[in-house]
Design goal:
The complex is a heterodimer.
Chain A (H helix, E strand, L loop, with lengths): L5 H8 L3 H23 L2 H18 L9 H26 L1 H9 L3 H13 L2 H6 L4 H12 L4 H8 L3 H18 L4
Helix pairs in contact in A: 1-2, 2-3, 2-4, 2-8, 3-4, 4-9, 8-10, 9-10
Chain B lengths: L2 H9 L9 H13 L1 H19 L9 H24 L3 H44 L2 H6 L4 H6 L1
Helix pairs in contact in B: 1-3, 2-3
Classes of the chains: A mainly alpha, B mainly alpha.
C-alpha cells in the first residue's frame, strides 16, 4: 500500500471529499483484496470495503498520528472483515434448519451447478476455506500483502508469537487439506 | 538441528525470512543433506506458499466509491441535526432548564400577584356597590351627587 501524506490525511479529516477520495484511490485495492480473501465473496468484500471507508471517514478527525495511518487502516480492515465473516457464520448456523429442508429437494441439476461453481472458484479461495478468520488474516497479510510478522502483529493488535502460531497452524491445515501434511 | 526443528522453521520463520542469517544457514545445510525435509519444503512451497503468493489483486468495483460518497453526504446532512441535539446534553440542559424554570416562576408569581390585586380591588368595589343597593345606605347617605344634595 502506498504511503499516505500527512497533509492529505489532515485535509480529509476536515471533511474535504476530494482528499478523502484520494486516500480511497491509494488504499482501496488493499482494503478490497484483504476483505475479499477473508470473506471469500466479492459481494461481501464490497460491503466490508464500504464499511471500512465509512469508519475511516467518521473517525479520521480522531486519528492523532500516534501510529502509522497504514497500520490503523490495516487494523480497521482486518477487524471489519473478520467480524463480518463471523456474523455471517452465525447467520448461516441459524439457517441450518431451513437448509436441511431445502437440501431434501436438492435436484441433480442444482447439484451439478454447485459443483461447477465450486470448480470455477480460484484455488486460493478453496485453500483459504480451510482456515478460521484469524488464521486467514495472518496468512493473507503475510503471503499476499508481504507483511513481516511484526507488521502483522501491529495490524492485528496482537504479539509476534501469536502471529507465528497462527501462520504455523494455518500452513499445517493447508498441507493436510492438499494431502501433504 | 533435527528434522522436527527444521520443519517447524520451514513452516514459519525460515520461509518468511524472519530468521537470522546464522540460523537460516543451518536450516539450509540440513535441507541439503536430508531428502525428506527437502521434499517437505518443496511440497510446502508448491501447494501452499506459491498459490497464495501468486493470487492476483483485483480492482474494487467503481460503484463502491459511489456508495461511500452517498453515505458521506448523508452523514453530513445529519451532522447539523446532531449538533443541535448536543445543546440538550446534560452539560447545557441543566443550567438552561434551571434558569428557564426560575424565570417562569418569577414571572408567574409577579403576574399572579398583580392579578390577585386587581381582583381584590374589584371585589371590594362590587361588595360596596351591592351593600349600597339595599337602600339603607342610599337613604342614609343619599347618592352622593351634588344635584341630589341640592334637592335634599
Amino acid at each position: 500500500m502506498e504511503n499516505i501524506p500527512r497533509d492529505l490525511i489532515a485535509k480529509a479529516a476536515t471533511g474535504e471529499t476530494a482528499a478523502f477520495r484520494e486516500i480511497y484511490e491509494k488504499t482501496s485495492v488493499f482494503v478490497y483484496n484483504v476483505a475479499l480473501r477473508i470473506t471469500g465473496k466479492s459481494n461481501d468484500a464490497c460491503d466490508v470495503t464500504q464499511d471500512v471507508f465509512i469508519k475511516v471517514y467518521k473517525n479520521l478527525h480522531k486519528f492523532g498520528f500516534l501510529s502509522s495511518f497504514k497500520t490503523w487502516l490495516y487494523r480497521i480492515t482486518v477487524n471489519t472483515a473478520i467480524n463480518y465473516k463471523k456474523s455471517e457464520k452465525k447467520h448461516m448456523e441459524k439457517r441450518t434448519d431451513y437448509n436441511t429442508v431445502a437440501n431434501s429437494v436438492f435436484t441433480e441439476e442444482t447439484a451439478r451447478e454447485s459443483v461447477d461453481k465450486e470448480s470455477g472458484r480460484e484455488r486460493v479461495s478453496v485453500l483459504l476455506d480451510a482456515l478460521n478468520p484469524e488464521q486467514r488474516a495472518c496468512v493473507i497479510l503475510r503471503e499476499i500483502e508481504g507483511m513481516t510478522y511484526r507488521e502483522i502483529a501491529s495490524a492485528l493488535g496482537t504479539n509476534i508469537n501469536t502471529v507465528r502460531t497462527r501462520i504455523k497452524r494455518a500452513r499445517e491445515k493447508l498441507m493436510a487439506s492438499v494431502g501433504k501434511g | 538441528m533435527n528434522c522436527a526443528n527444521v520443519r517447524d522453521l520451514l513452516m514459519t520463520d525460515y520461509t518468511d525470512g524472519e530468521l537470522k542469517d546464522k540460523t537460516a544457514g543451518k536450516v539450509r545445510e540440513h535441507i541439503a543433506t536430508c531428502p525428506k525435509c527437502k521434499e517437505f519444503e518443496e511440497a510446502l512451497k508448491n501447494n501452499v506458499i506459491s498459490p497464495l503468493k501468486s493470487a492476483g489483486r483485483k480492482k474494487p468495483p467503481d460503484f463502491i466509491w459511489e456508495r461511500i460518497k452517498s453515505r458521506i453526504i448523508t452523514e453530513r446532512e445529519t451532522a447539523p441535526r446532531k449538533a443541535s441535539l448536543r445543546i440538550l446534553k446534560p452539560v447545557f440542559a441543566v443550567p438552561v432548564v434551571a434558569v428557564a424554570v426560575f424565570t417562569l416562576i418569577v414571572i408567574t408569581h409577579f403576574y399572579r400577584a398583580a392579578g390577585i390585586g386587581t381582583v381584590d380591588s374589584y371585589m371590594e368595589e362590587q361588595a360596596s356597590f351591592i351593600a349600597n343597593l339595599d337602600g339603607v345606605g342610599t337613604e342614609t347617605n343619599g347618592l352622593g351627587t351634588s344635584i341630589e344634595e341640592f334637592l335634599l
